[in-house]
Design a protein that fits this description.
alpha/beta; 377 residues; TIM Barrel; 15 helices; 18% strand; three-stranded antiparallel β-sheet; globular
Length: 377
C-alpha cells in the first residue's frame, strides 16, 4: 500500500492520537463524527457543529440516494456544497440501513434488492453502485465498502456467509474505486462476535488493501463486554499505520474503552437523538432535563464549557422548553451534547499525548459506570 496521510503523534498503551489529513482539512484523532443522515446534523446549524471542534461529519448513502437522490445532489454541486459544509465528510455504504429493512430486502451475490421505506419503490444497491453514489455523485472524502450486516445473536454459519460476502463485496468496491488522489476508501471487518470469523475477515480486508479499516457489526445488542472483547481481538490485526474506525458506537464509556484498544474514529446518532429527547451528557453521566427536579435549577449544564448551549442557559430554562414543546430545547441540547462529545475526544487526545490516558480512563469509568442511564452496552 502507498503512503497514506495518517500520522500518529503519541501513544499510551494501545491508545493513540494523531492526525488524518484530507484535501478538505485535517482530522484530529481519536475523532467523533456527528451523523448527518439526510444532509443535516439534526436540529443543528452546521456552523454550530463546527464550533464544537468537529473536523468531520458522516453522510448517509441510503437516505440521500432515496431523497433527494444522489444524482440530484450531484447536479447541485455535490454533498459539501448542497449542505453547506466545506470540511471532510465520510459516507457510509448504505449497508446498515438496508440490513435494517429485514422485510423489504433480498440479498444476492450481485448486491441487494430493497424497497424504499418512504414510498415502496424498488432499488438495487451493488458494491459498485454504492461507491458510485458516495464518490462520484455525493463526492465524499472517505467512502465505505458495501457490506452485509447481521443481527445479534447470529449463528456461526450465517455470520460466516455474511462476512465472506462482505469480503467479496470489498474486493469489488476496491476495484471500482481504483486509485483517487482526493478521496479514500475504507474496508470493513465483519464476523459478529466469533473470533475465528473476525480473524478471517481482518486478514481478507488487509489483503485487499484499503486506506483505512472499520470494525462493523457491533452495537447491535451484543453488550459492552462482548464489544470490548471483539475490539481487543480485531484491532491488533489491522495495520498500525492506517486509521481504525468503530462504526456506530457512541456511548461515552464504549468510546473510551475502544480508544484504549487502539480505535481512532467513531460515529453515532446518540448525541443528537438524546438531545431531542431531553437527555444531556455530562462529565458526571447523563441527566434527563425533563425531570421535575430541574424545574427551578438556575445553573447551566456546564459553566466551564465554551459552548453557549452548555454555558448560557439554565437547566430550569431547558426544562421549560421541553415541557412547553419548544423547538429550541432539542436544538440547544443537541448542540450541548455534540460539544460534550468533542470535549471528551479532545480530553482523550490531550491525555494520550501527556502519557496519562490510563489515569484519565480510570477516572471517567469511576464517574460513569453504574449510572442508571449509562450502563455499558
Amino acid at each position: 500500500m502507498a503512503e497514506f496521510p495518517f500520522h500518529i503523534s503519541a501513544t499510551d498503551g494501545d491508545a493513540r492520537t494523531g492526525r488524518l489529513s484530507t484535501p478538505r482539512g485535517d482530522i484530529a484523532t481519536p475523532a467523533f463524527m456527528p451523523v448527518g443522515t439526510a444532509g443535516t446534523v439534526k436540529a443543528m446549524y452546521l456552523d454550530d457543529v463546527r464550533s464544537t471542534g468537529t473536523d468531520i461529519i458522516l453522510g448517509n448513502t441510503y437516505h440521500l440516494m432515496l431523497r433527494p437522490s444522489a444524482e440530484r445532489v450531484s447536479r447541485l454541486g455535490g454533498l459539501h456544497r448542497f449542505m453547506g459544509w466545506s470540511h471532510p465528510i465520510l459516507t457510509d455504504s448504505g449497508g446498515f440501513q438496508v440490513f435494517s429493512l429485514s422485510d423489504l430486502r433480498k440479498m444476492k451475490e450481485e448486491g441487494v434488492e430493497f424497497r424504499s421505506h418512504i414510498d415502496g419503490s424498488s432499488h438495487f444497491l451493488s458494491p459498485e453502485r454504492s461507491i458510485e453514489i458516495q464518490s462520484d455523485l455525493l463526492g465524499s472524502d472517505i467512502a465505505m465498502q458495501l457490506d452485509e450486516c447481521v443481527a445479534n445473536p447470529c449463528e456461526h454459519a450465517p455470520a460466516a456467509s455474511a462476512m465472506r460476502l462482505s469480503a467479496r463485496w470489498g474486493d469489488r468496491s476496491k476495484a471500482y474505486f481504483g486509485q483517487r488522489d482526493r478521496q479514500s476508501l475504507f474496508g470493513i471487518v465483519q464476523g459478529s462476535t466469533y473470533p475465528d470469523l473476525r480473524k478471517e475477515s481482518a486478514e481478507r480486508v488487509v489483503e485487499t488493501g484499503f486506506d483505512g479499516y472499520a470494525i462493523g457489526g457491533l452495537a447491535v445488542g451484543e453488550g459492552h463486554a462482548a464489544m470490548c472483547d471483539t475490539i481487543s481481538l480485531t484491532a491488533p490485526l489491522l495495520p498500525k499505520d492506517r486509521p481504525r474506525y468503530l462504526m456506530g458506537v457512541g456511548k461515552p464509556i464504549d468510546i473510551v474503552e475502544a480508544v484504549a484498544r487502539g480505535i481512532d474514529m467513531f460515529d453515532c446518532v446518540l448525541p443528537t437523538r438524546s438531545g431531542r429527547h431531553g437527555q444531556a451528557w455530562t462529565w458526571d453521566g447523563p441527566i434527563n432535563l425533563k425531570n421535575a427536579k430541574f424545574a427551578e435549577d438556575d445553573q447551566p449544564i456546564d459553566p466551564a464549557s465554551s459552548c453557549p448551549a452548555s454555558r448560557d442557559y439554565s437547566k430550569a430554562y431547558l426544562n421549560h422548553l421541553f415541557k412547553a414543546g419548544e423547538y429550541l430545547g432539542p436544538m440547544l441540547l443537541s448542540w450541548h451534547n455534540i460539544a460534550f462529545f468533542q470535549a471528551m475526544m479532545a480530553a482523550m487526545r490531550h491525555a494520550i499525548s501527556e502519557g496519562r490516558f490510563e489515569a484519565w480512563r480510570s477516572e471517567m469509568r469511576g464517574r460513569w459506570v453504574g449510572k442508571v442511564e449509562d450502563q455499558p452496552g
